[in-house]
Amino acid sequence: MKWGVIGTGNMGEILIDAWMASSVVEQNNLYITNRTIAKAYAIKEHYPEVNVCTQIKDLVQHVDILYICVKPLEIHPLLIDIYDYLTKDQCIVSITSPFSVKKLESIVPCQVARLIPSITNRATAGVTLATFGSSIREEMKSYLLQSCKLYSTPEIIHDDVTRISSDIVSCGPAFFGYLAEKYINTAEQETNITKEQASALTEKMFIGFGKLLEDGHYTLPQLIEKVCVKGGVTGEGIKAMDHSIGELFNNLIHATHNKYEEDIKKIANQLNE
User: Fold this and answer.
1) Which amino acids are annotated as binding site for NADP(+), given as ranges?
2) Which of 109, 116, 156, 213 is a Cys-bridge partner for 129, taking CB atoms 3.0 to 4.6 Å apart?
3) Position 264 confidence tier, pLDDT thresholds 50, 70, 90
């Protein structure tokens, strides 16, 4: 199979790195392009046999699977531009949440899937959120899922949980990274620890924390119970967090879902719905 990527920004590049690290696709079977073509050539410096296409139509005509890694509102104009070069045997894969597979299928004459990645895929870990169009063939569906398993854990989801699932899987590293950075900065301000030392300790804690969960030693509630000894320091810290956290996560979910609905409406306007 020949794979293509349109859009080699942050997530496009992360996917390519994950594929290369896990041998999902051979370099010479990967075709890439980007609006700023220098970004595509920068990737080729790391993977010399990757094919850079300066024209999108040339890329489309070469590949079996086409990953669309552009912003949501850029997808519809792009699909209109490449429509005449698509065939029914090809499969388009979108990585963005607000553009549903149903909408994709209404535009293109080929098979369709949505595979939402995470930055954790760069470490050949984490989850890929999968949704498939009604016309996708079982062989293609199985091939995509098996490919995802090489660098992540694929999880098939329904449209009604797309946003919250993406919040957890894709946005989660940034959300919890932000909280960790706030904790580090406050630790530096309130105590004698340096930011460098606090950062190093936090990073190692996260690695060990993930390992405990990955190896099945504890669930999240069990882990909290084990550390939170009755009458101990951790318990006091949990009380302080519980008192201060308020509606933080309610507001977070409302914010991401409002943006999601806004993007869906803009996409609907593009499609004259």
Assistant:
1) 6-11
2) 116
3) very high
Q: Do 243 and 75 contact (CB within 8 A), yes or no?
A: no
**Distance in angstroms (rounded) separating the CA atoms of residues 56 and 54:** 7
Cα–Cα nearest to 70, from 94, 42, 54, 97: 94
DSSP state, residue 120:
G
The pLDDT-based confidence of 273 (bands split at 50, 70, 90) is: confident
User: How far apart (Å, rounded) are the C-alpha atoms in residues 268 and 270?
Assistant: 5
What residues contact residue 114 under an 8 Å CB cut-off, 6+ apart? 93, 94, 95, 96, 97, 99, 100, 101, 104, 129, 130, 131, 132
Q: How far apart are CA 108 and CA 110, in angstroms?
A: 6
For 216, the 3-state DSSP assignment is coil
List the structure tokens of 262: 């806004």
The order of strands in the sheet holding 91-94 is: 51-52, 30-33, 3-6, 65-68, 91-94, 111-116, 127-132, 153-156
Q: What is the pLDDT of residues 43-79, one digit of tens each?
A: 999 999 999 999 999 999 999 999 999 999 999 999 9
Q: Please give the radius of gyration of the chain, using alpha carbons only, rounded to the nearest integer.
A: 21
CA distances from 203 to 63, 81, 118, 152 (A): 40, 45, 19, 21
Which amino acid is it at 212?
L
Residue 128 host element (H or E): strand 127-132
